[in-house]
Amino acid sequence: MNVSGAPLAGFPALVLNADFRPLSYYPLSLWPWQEVVKAVFLERVDVVAHYDKLIHSPSLEMRLPSVISLRDYVRQDRPPAFTRFNVFLRDGFACQYCGAGDDLTFDHLVPRSKGGRTTWENIVTACAPCNLRKGGKFARHASMRPYRKPRRPSMHELQHVGRRFPPHHLHQSWMDYLYWDVELEA
């Protein structure tokens, strides 16, 4: 991970909820600078920190925000959407049969050919070789058992797992609001 004082390409801003916690850790809640400027003028956010970069219009000069907080709190207790990304995140981006982290796919515990549905409780992350080995069989008939029984996670659980996967580049001004153990690079 690279933590620097130099701005990232495009000057994104870290978006914090009204309680000063990131809206999301993985993917990290970032807005492009254009959306940030719009939100500032619509008074939907407060600026917490700035880049050293100035933007200009015919009548205005403004330092680009690097960290903003929403004025209205966004509840984080809603159920997460069922998406491929969220299933992979729930399972720690690892095959639930062998632990591999490459070439990941969905696997239906009860195969679709046998009436299995695409739900939180019937899908696990599997690497392509394990998924091919299991094929259209039930996991127990293929002598394969997932490490964990699949279930619908809460948003809090997904946020917690997401903290294990910090992005490769972080701006120095974001570090007071992120809770990863990182070494700062000059």
Structure description:
With 186 residues, the protein is of the alpha/beta class. The protein has a four-stranded mixed β-sheet with strand order 3-2-5-4. β4 and β5 form a beta hairpin. The C terminus is likely disordered.
Distance between the termini: 12 Å
How many DSSP E strands?
8
What is the overall number of helices?
4
Helical coverage, percent range: 10-25%
In angstroms, what is the radius of gyration?
Answer: 21 Å
As residue ranges, the low-confidence spans are: 181-186
Q: Indicate the overall shape.
A: elongated
Strand order of the largest sheet: 3-2-5-4
Mean pLDDT over the full residue set = 89
Compressed to H and E, one letter per element, the order equals EEEHEEHEEHHE
Structural class: alpha/beta
Q: Largest beta sheet, briefly? A: 4 strands, mixed
The proportion of residues in beta strands is: 15-25%
